[in-house]
Design brief:
The protein has ten helices and seven strands. The protein is of the alpha/beta class. The chain has a single domain, classed as Rossmann fold (3-Layer(aba) Sandwich). Strand 6 and strand 7 form a beta hairpin. Helix 6 packs across helix 7 and helix 6 packs antiparallel against helix 10. It is globular and about 50 Å long.
């Protein structure tokens, strides 16, 4: 299933069904017909978020079924990400299977350094010229400004300490930071292990406060695309505007 399909399903489940239905035992029973007891485990997972051990966190993600084929990003988001890449080096934090890096490489064959990071890299494919590093987003093993562009898609919603995660992404980005999160509302029973929910673009802008002067934040088919240029790279206002076109 691709992202475009799941976004259409999410529209029905999140925007058309009222909260009194989404949080009900009736919805839980219907959801269990699709995902069994895992839907209950996800609800318990979110409820216990502040108290989870690293082992519990990793165990649930290893058992969680993969919904999307290859990447969680829509084709529209992939095009925007590829068009917003600055410089010669890119790091995809939360790279998953490496599918997004494959698209980035195809659009930017001139890149000299391409790195994928995830807390588990077992699922990452072996792409030529890509180094994979296992690390947590809250503590990235790179020097300040290590990469011209840092990309992080469909990760921030999973991280309890998302402000620390964003601070780390900004720390290692020399010229540009690109983040994509789903635009969604929180309910008791849902089909994903998310901790953080951003129903509007301005909801996400609060999460990345302080927001630099040079940024783009917009809704792309129920996903929020956010792109900021490091403030000492102010001369690149024109290229950021082009990326938003």
């Amino acid at each position: 299933m691709n992202r475009e399909t799941t976004n259409r399903i999410r529209f029905v489940l999140e925007d058309l069904l009222p909260p009194v239905v989404r949080d009900s035992r009736l919805f839980r029973a219907a959801a269990k017909l699709v995902w069994g007891e895992h839907i209950v485990h996800l609800a318990e997972f979110r409820a216990r978020a502040p108290f989870l051990s690293e082992a519990e966190y990793e165990a649930l993600y290893r058992k969680h079924p993969r919904v999307h084929a290859g990447t969680d990003n829509s084709s529209a988001c992939i095009r925007r990400i590829a068009g917003a890449i600055e410089g010669d080096s890119v790091c995809d934090v939360g790279c998953g299977t490496g599918a997004l890096l494959k698209h980035i490489q195809a659009s930017r064959p001139d890149l000299t350094r391409v790195t994928g990071v995830d807390f588990v890299v077992d699922d990452a494919g072996s792409l030529p010229g890509v180094e994979y590093i296992a690390a947590r987003i809250e503590d990235l093993p790179f020097a300040d400004g290590a990469f011209d562009t840092v990309v992080c898609t469909h990760v921030i919603e999973h991280v309890l300490d998302y402000r620390q995660a964003i601070a780390e992404l900004r720390r290692i980005a020399r010229r540009r930071l690109i983040i994509v999160v789903p635009r969604e509302r929180e309910y008791r029973y849902s089909f994903n292990p998310h901790f953080n929910f951003f129903p509007y673009t301005h909801s996400f802008l609060r999460a990345v406060h302080p927001v630099p002067a040079i940024h783009v934040c917009e809704d792309i088919g129920r996903d929020i695309f956010y792109c900021e240029t490091v403030e000492n790279e102010g001369a690149r206002v024109g290229s950021l505007a082009a990326a938003a076109a």
